[in-house]
From TrEMBL:
SUPFAM superfamilies: Ribokinase-like. CDD domains: YXKO-related. Keywords: ATP-binding, Lyase, NAD, NADP, Nucleotide-binding, Phosphoprotein. Residues 72-82 have a biased composition (Gly residues). This is ATP-dependent (S)-NAD(P)H-hydrate dehydratase. One of its GO terms (biological process) is nicotinamide nucleotide metabolic process.
Length: 382
């Protein structure tokens, strides 16, 4: 979780001309972000400390379960040893498996967790009793884990509701800058993205949200986003590599309707088999945060696109036919225009600040750059 990145993205959108930006973040990051700008609305929707307490509790239960398994492996607490004769049912070489299912796989697991119990070597009544006691404790721990999983789902659902409640008031949503890589934050992001697709909200996916999508457990979500035409992904070199690996591992061959802005010396804006190249000259320094500035700038341009599309859908009832073909082309062009804005702003900022240029300097140039581009456009149109 970072405070700088969400601020850069949000402030960039404001400087492009957006009226209001709300940052949904952790309680821990809320105050610094708020202090960067009085203009930003900042909402603390979760607490990393509380999220960690869920992971700690889960870790504690799992450790207890592992302890139980080890005790089972030791021959039932004194009930048996390596030389002990074994019953037919519980042959010494047998490894039984206990599946621990919690509401959702914890910390990156897929499906349940499996812990091996080395053959339960119950050789006499005492051993059987001890084993039965162990199994009893195990069942109780499993129950605890289930209950915790359910509590966690309710907790995550509450955060998701808090964020999605605002959807009707939004034109676009950017997810990723400064998100961090906490597994429970990923669970929240996953559900928010699913709800945003259902609500047909314009989505800009960047930074850690792209890292999340490269994980195996989010493959379906990645596929959903790849076929969602109102999604723009903004990967840097590493993020693009990870996404490619994720997609090539299991390319469902589905429709590729979203836009990918692959950042680099030349930004490439890709829609299915079409590619636009932003060859505008930038600055000579690639300071941290320019990617966040781009994510915020694209978000502003996509918000304007969403407004245009809404107007056209409305007009459609009065016989204006919405042209799907032109919609994606306009989104492609908007993403390209946003990349041009950031390159131009970086160039001016670098000319002024040279080595000391920071993302804040780039943000400071956005307003003039957008105005100049608008003037150029007006002058070009007869
Ligand atoms: N002030 C703030 O709050 C800021 C916060 N930020 C937030 O940080 C989070 C993580 O973002 P990220 O960019 O460090 O993560 P990711 O892309 O996984 O890179 C991991 C490693 O891969 C490498 N690497 C990356 N690009 C490369 C390239 N083009 N060419 C070659 N190598 C490249 C590079 O490895 P290195 O070169 O250091 O060995 C890098 O360290 C995310 O939430 C973001 O929003 C930032 O926005 C900055 C401002
Ligand atoms: N190799 C490069 N040469 C020149 N400019 C570059 C290069 N790579 C990126 N840029 C510029 O920096 C912008 C952001 O790309 P970058 O790869 O720094 O994103 P990022 O790593 O996500 O940024 P952040 O530091 O915000 O996480 C690009 O849109 C482009 O304008």
């Amino acid at each position: 979780m970072y405070a700088g990145a969400p601020y850069y993205a949000a402030e960039s959108a404001l400087r492009c001309g957006v009226d209001l930006v709300t940052v949904y973040t952790a309680a821990e990051a809320c105050m610094p972000i708020k202090c960067y700008s009085p203009e930003l609305m900042v909402r603390a929707v979760y607490s990393i400390e509380v999220m960690n307490s869920y992971l700690d509790e889960e870790g504690g239960i799992i450790r207890e379960m592992e302890g139980e398994c080890r005790r089972g492996g030791g021959g039932g607490g004194g009930g048996g040893g390596n030389d002990a004769p074994t019953t037919k049912e519980t042959n010494g070489s047998d490894t039984r498996r206990i599946a621990m299912m919690s509401g959702r796989p914890p910390i990156g697991g897929e499906g349940g967790r499996y812990l091996p119990i080395q053959g339960g070597e119950a050789r006499n009544d005492d051993g059987v009793e001890v084993l039965a006691e162990g199994l009893g404790r195990m069942t109780s721990l499993e129950g605890k884990l289930h209950a915790l999983g359910e509590r966690r789902e309710v907790f995550i659902g509450g955060i998701v509701d808090d964020i999605t409640h605002a959807f009707p008031t939004l034109h676009a949503m950017c997810i990723g800058p400064g998100l961090g890589r906490h597994p429970l934050v990923f669970s929240v992001a996953e559900k928010v993205i699913q709800r945003a697709i259902e609500a047909r909200l314009m989505l800009i996916i960047d930074a850690d949200a792209l890292f999340m999508l490269s994980l195996g457990e989010y493959r379906d979500l990645l596929e959903d986003l790849r076929s969602y035409e109102r999604c723009v992904m903004t990967p840097n070199l590493m993020e693009m590599r990870r996404l490619r690996d994720a997609l090539s591992a299991d390319d469902g061959g589905g429709r590729r309707s979203n836009i990918i802005v692959q950042k680099g010396n030349v930004d490439e804006i890709i829609h299915d088999s079409y590619t636009m190249r932003c060859e505008e000259e930038g600055g000579l320094k690639r300071c941290g945060g320019i990617g966040d500035v781009l994510a915020g700038t694209i978000s502003a341009f996509m918000a304007w696109n969403a407004i245009l599309e809404m107007e056209e859908t409305h007009d459609a009832q009065n016989d204006v036919i919405t042209n799907k073909e032109s919609e994606w082309q306009r989104r492609l062009f908007a993403s390209w225009a946003a990349a041009v804005v950031v390159k131009k702003a970086t160039k001016v900022a670098f000319q002024k600040k040279k080595r000391s240029m920071s993302a804040l300097d780039v943000i400071g140039e956005i307003g003039d750059v957008v105005n100049d581009m608008e003037d150029d456009l007006k002058n070009a149109v007869p």
